[in-house]
Design goal:
7-stranded mixed β-sheet, two-stranded antiparallel sheet, Arc Repressor Mutant, subunit A, D-Maltodextrin-Binding Protein, domain 2, 3 domains, alpha/beta
């Protein structure tokens, strides 16, 4: 089969249709007509020899092949933009351009701000945006793998073995879990458990399952901030990682879980190609400089 060369505008059309969920909405985004968008997609499908979207009365949904094509399209478009930014930055001697970051809530609140503050001071031409992503399923790493983010702050195994295939990364810190309970409570381990879906990752689950004093969650919250609020209101106790306890309110108390307490590894992930760009390298340097102040 001959090489199917795709132009940048064709890649942008693929991404727009996938993001907007249909040809009409994609046309509005691109400033084109629906028929023009449909024509471009049919042309791409002809070049590739596969159907990329399932058409229906409710829009267009990528097929399995379409999902792969859209992921590659996002990543290729990002590298084309990086080519311009890095080339101009090399000429000016300054890193510049957009930098898209995905982070789970506590990392976005407590880990990223000092790194981004230093990044902005040293590289004012870098335009950072942060999207908070729940660390469930593919989580922040999935945002990077699918081309929606340049770098993700993720949780994974301490040895890095859980970094998804096709991505690169490193551990930044290991944060311990602690028992959190209403301040002054005489027997916090007898309280109901308040929990949230992102807690107790697969890397702490064995420890969690071996603790016969931990009941099934009686109260579930949307995120770790809501858990802290509920615990402070006397609704129960919780087991939480250190980043989530940054600046905890005076209505709660933190008790250690002993020398065999579980820990959660927090690090960054990016793609091999973006890892070489000036903006991503600059952020990684700032994140690594925070290691001496790791949670604990």
């Amino acid at each position: 089969m001959p090489t199917a060369d795709l132009a940048p505008q064709e890649l942008r059309t693929l991404v727009a249709v996938a993001d907007e969920g249909g040809f009409s909405a994609a046309a509005v985004r691109l400033g084109a007509t629906q028929s023009a968008v449909s024509h471009v997609v049919r042309g791409i499908e002809g070049k590739l020899g596969v159907v990329l979207f399932e058409r229906g009365r409710y829009g267009a949904r990528p097929t399995a092949a379409g999902e792969r094509a859209v992921t590659h399209a996002r990543r290729v478009l990002r590298m084309l933009a990086a080519l311009v930014d890095d080339t101009r930055g090399a000429e000016a001697g300054e890193a510049a351009g957009p930098l898209r970051i995905a982070a789970f809530r506590s990392a976005a609140l407590h880990l990223l701000p000092p790194a981004l503050e230093r990044l902005a001071a040293r590289h004012p031409g870098i335009e950072s945006t942060v999207t908070v992503v729940r660390e469930l399923g593919a989580g922040t790493a999935g945002e990077v793998a699918e081309g929606r983010a340049d770098l993700g702050i993720a949780t994974f195994a301490a040895d890095g073995s859980s970094i998804p295939a096709g991505l690169v990364g490193d551990v930044l810190l290991q944060e311990p879990y602690s028992l959190v309970h209403p301040a002054g409570h005489p027997a916090p381990r007898t309280l109901w458990l308040v929990d949230w879906a992102e807690n107790c990752s697969s890397y702490t689950r064995d420890w969690w399952a071996a603790q016969d004093w931990i009941p099934a969650a009686t109260v579930r919250a949307e995120d770790d901030g809501a858990v802290l609020s509920m615990v402070g209101s006397g609704l129960g106790m919780a087991i939480m990682p250190a980043l989530s306890l940054t600046g905890f309110p005076p209505t709660v108390e933190i008790t250690g879980l002993g020398p065999r307490r579980p820990t959660r590894s927090v690090g960054y992930v990016t793609t091999p190609e973006l890892a070489t760009t000036a903006a991503v390298r600059a952020l990684i340097r700032e994140l690594r400089s925070l290691r001496p102040r790791a949670a604990g």
